[in-house]
Specification:
This protein is of the alpha+beta class. The protein has 7 helices and 6 strands, in the order H-H-E-E-H-E-H-E-H-E-E-H-H.
């Protein structure tokens, strides 16, 4: 019987991530710090946060750490039936990026010296809006409870992304309202 990997997601680490998610006002800065912290805290080679564009049916990189420019520009990351994490809204662990048929760019993974990847859905309410990908140059093993905490982290990230979108919308509405004549603003 195979033993469970050790728990690596401590309450202290989770609190640090939660504080960061609630404190940052700049989403791009938050994402860049988050992916770097995940790599350092869990001894992973790289991490990326990608958002889904339903018009293009692909994931676009919002931020990453530990990946070369060559890897980041390897080509579009399309969402299809193979992309189980995104479609099913569940975490997916790929143990061999070189040989698994779900991987769109196995040659790029070989060149980048990446062996395994954990894909965590980023969700807002019942919608999967993106994916957090954690990469390593050796086998990735997380305890069951760590996986659950990564799923919660993915939900928190989704909430922050949606909140930022709402904030941007409100700012644009306020700017538009300032351009309206006062007689229109004062009508009942």
């Amino acid at each position: 019987m195979k033993s469970q990997p050790l728990k690596r997601f401590t309450l202290k680490k989770f609190q640090a991530f939660a504080r960061a998610l609630s404190a940052y006002s700049q989403l791009d800065l938050l994402v860049n710090h988050l992916v770097e912290d995940i790599c350092h805290e869990f001894d992973m080679r790289a991490c990326s946060i990608l958002l889904f564009d339903d018009r293009e049916n692909q994931l676009f990189r919002m931020g990453s750490f530990g990946l070369s420019d060559e890897y980041l520009t390897k080509g579009p990351v399309f969402v299809d039936d193979k992309c189980n994490s995104f479609i099913k809204g569940e975490p997916v662990l790929i143990n061999d990026l070189h040989k698994d048929d779900r991987v769109q760019y196995p040659d790029a993974a070989i060149k980048e010296n990446l062996l395994s990847m954990l894909a965590i859905p980023i969700k807002y309410r019942n919608y999967t809006i993106g994916e957090m990908r954690i990469y390593n140059n050796r086998l990735i093993e997380f305890h069951e409870e760590d996986m659950e905490l990564f799923l919660i982290l993915g939900q928190f990230i989704g909430l922050v992304i949606d909140n930022q979108g709402l904030r941007n919308f409100i700012v644009s509405v306020r700017a538009s309202m300032q351009d309206l004549p006062l007689r229109i603003l004062n009508e009942p």
